[in-house]
């Protein structure tokens, strides 16, 4: 049995879903961002129970193919930007196409049509949130962050950061209260 779950964008989400499945007696499940694969099937009553528990936690089991594919796109972006130690060396379009086995143009058009914004815009916003995180950790300077996030220069990173947030990375760093968005809100 395979389930696709909306808003499942963090390690904590996967731990929560795994825990809920184990409470229901399902111990042979592979749980990763946005996806659950169990060797056993859930009965309709168990599935409804799981849907209710997940709904209370802000998660949602997806049933239609378009929604599932959109969620898979989002999860690949989140995993790539926030959880990989290093961004892929290939173009994002190639990386996404390879991960999902679909033509990038199709994925991009579907995403724009469904989400009301471009896939590139979505990726950019996630990169900015990751940059905020790296600035807040204060373990890297802007040159190192620009290199890690595959920007051609600090100036390019700074321009995009200001365009999205309205402030420069330096002014963000100097703020006493710095805010980041939840990944499911990006």
List the helices and strands and how they pair.
Blueprint: E1 2-6, H1 11-23, E2 29-32, E3 35-38, H2 44-56, E4 60-62, H3 65-83, H4 92-100, H5 104-115, H6 119-137, H7 142-148, H8 154-165, H9 169-174
Antiparallel strand pairs: 1-3, 1-4, 2-3
Mind explaining what this structure looks like?
Helix content is 59%, strand content 9%. The chain has 186 residues and is of the alpha+beta class. The protein has two domains: 2-62, Alpha-Beta Plaits, CATH 3.30.70; 66-186, Homeodomain-like (Arc Repressor Mutant, subunit A, Orthogonal Bundle), CATH 1.10.10. Helix 3 runs parallel beside helix 6 (119-137) and helix 6 (119-137) packs across helix 8. The protein is globular. The relative contact order is 0.10.
**Overall 3D form:** globular
SSE pattern: EHEEHEHHHHHHH
Q: Give the DSSP E fraction (strand runs of 2 or more residues).
A: 5-15%
What is the rounded Rg?
A: 18 Å
Any idea how many domains? 2
CATH architectural group of the largest domain: Orthogonal Bundle
Which CATH C-level class of the largest domain is it?
Mainly Alpha
Count of runs of 4 or more consecutive helical residues: 9
Mean pLDDT: 92
The CATH superfamily of the largest domain turns out to be Homeodomain-like
* Major sheet strand order: 2-3-1-4
Main sheet characteristics? 4 strands, antiparallel
Q: List how many beta strands DSSP finds.
A: 4
Q: How far from one another are the termini?
A: 30 Å
Helical percentage: 55-70%
CATH topology of the largest domain: Arc Repressor Mutant, subunit A
């Amino acid at each position: 049995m395979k389930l696709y779950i909306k808003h499942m964008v963090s390690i904590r989400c996967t731990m929560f879903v795994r825990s809920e499945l184990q409470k229901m007696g399902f111990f042979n499940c592979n749980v990763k961002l946005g996806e659950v694969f169990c060797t056993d099937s859930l009965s309709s009553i168990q599935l409804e129970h799981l849907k209710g528990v997940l709904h209370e936690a802000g998660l949602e089991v997806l049933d239609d193919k378009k929604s599932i594919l959109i969620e898979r796109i989002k999860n690949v972006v989140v995993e790539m930007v926030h959880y990989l130690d290093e961004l892929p060396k290939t173009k994002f379009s190639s990386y996404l196409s390879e991960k999902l086995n679909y033509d990038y143009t199709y994925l991009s058009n579907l995403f724009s049509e469904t989400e009301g914004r471009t896939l590139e815009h979505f990726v950019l916003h996630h990169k900015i949130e990751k940059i905020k995180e790296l600035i807040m950790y204060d373990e890297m300077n802007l040159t190192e962050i620009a290199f890690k996030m595959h920007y051609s220069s600090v100036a390019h990173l700074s321009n995009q950061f200001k365009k999205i947030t309205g402030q420069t990375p330096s002014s963000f760093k100097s703020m006493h209260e710095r805010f980041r968005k939840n990944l499911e809100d990006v």
